[in-house]
Amino acid sequence: MPSMPRPDAVTVPDSVQAFLTGTALVAAFTTMRPDGTPHVAPVRFTWDSDAQLARVMTVRSSRKARNLLATPGAPVALCQVDGFRWVTLEGTGTVVTDPERVALGARLYAKRYWSAPPTPSDRVVIEIAVDRVLSLNA
């Protein structure tokens, strides 16, 4: 099921698009714990420019998923770095359990990273609705 761009769509230059979809790098994913402190974890992710969504495969019991379940729609940041080039995607994060959307996340992950993600029974996808893109040298 394709997503329609949101009315508040962000502009993503071609060079940034290439950086987010090219080399299969990892990123630092930041969520906020219920006590207000940041939780930063390295993650693999995919970028869907049409839907303006970044997706992170994880499990429901992970700290990042529990943070978002405690505060649905909370602000998050995903920062991919390669030397002196970086892109940060900011937006709101949502833990998604819908089997079709989790399967889509897994397919996109496998395409980018050349291997399927793990398949634990509590697998979910975190969808990040991006509303700001920051970058340097990308």
UniProtKB/TrEMBL annotation:
Domain Pyridoxamine 5'-phosphate oxidase N-terminal residue range list: 14-135
PANTHER family per the UniProt record, alphabetical: HEME OXYGENASE HI_0854-RELATED (PTHR35176)
InterPro entries for the chain: F420H2_bilvrd_red/Heme_oxyg, Pyridox_Oxase_N, Split_barrel_FMN-bd
Protein name per UniProt: Pyridoxamine 5'-phosphate oxidase family protein
Taxonomic source organism: Streptomyces plicatus
Entry keyword Oxidoreductase: yes
Keyword list, A-Z: Oxidoreductase
